[in-house]
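In the current project phase, we have settled on a layout for protein records. A sample record is reproduced below.
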Amino acid sequence: MKKSTITLLAGAACAAVAVPAAAQDSSPFTGLRVEALVGYDISKAGSSVDNDLNDEDDESIEGVQVGVGIGYDIEIGGFVVGVEGELSKSHADTRISDGDLEDIGFGGNLEANRDLYAGLRIGKTVGTNGLLYVKGGYTNARYDIDISDGVSTLETDLDLDGYRVGAGGEYAISNNTFIKLEYRYSNYSKGEFDFRDNDFFQDDTGESGRFDADLDRHQVVVGMGIRF
C-alpha cells in the first residue's frame, strides 16, 4: 500500500509538470524570437509647414528598409504579451537644392541612417496559427546631412527621439518559424545635431543642444523569423 501511494503521488507530480509544458509547447507564439525585416520607409515633416524653397525638392524621403529584430513573448489565456527590440537601416534619401544657387555649387543630401526601437506588444491569437497585435514604444532615428557651397562641406548627423505605435499580423508556419506583416507610425519630437569634422569648422564641434522637432515616419515591413 505504501509503495502504491508513493507511485501514485509521483505520477501525479509528473503529470502536473507535463501538462503546462505540453500546453506551452503547443503554442507557436511563446519564447524567444529573432527575425529579419524588409519594408518601405517614408519620412516627412510632421508640421503643416511645407518646404517651398524649390519645386524640385522632395516633401518626403522614401526608400527600402532592412533590419533585424529580437523579442520574447508569453501567452496568457489566448493573449500574447511580449517585449521587443529592433535595429534597421533605411535607404531613403533626397538631394537638397536651392534654385539657381545649385548652378554655383550649392547643394546637399539628406539620407536616412539607422533606426532603433524598443517596446512592448500585445496580441490576440486567431485560430491555432494566427496572431493579431498592436505595439508601442521608444524609437531613435539618425539622418545624415551633407551640405556644400561649392568650396567647403558641412557633414552632420541628426539624432531624433520619439515614440512608435503600430499593428500587425503574424502567422506561425510551425512552432519554430513565422512570417508577419506590420505597419508602424513614428513621431520624433526631440533632436540634436552631432557635427563631424568638416571644412566649415576647424575641428569637431561636438553635439548641439537638444531642440524641438516634428517628423513623421511611416513604415510597412514584412518579417520572417524563428523561435527558440
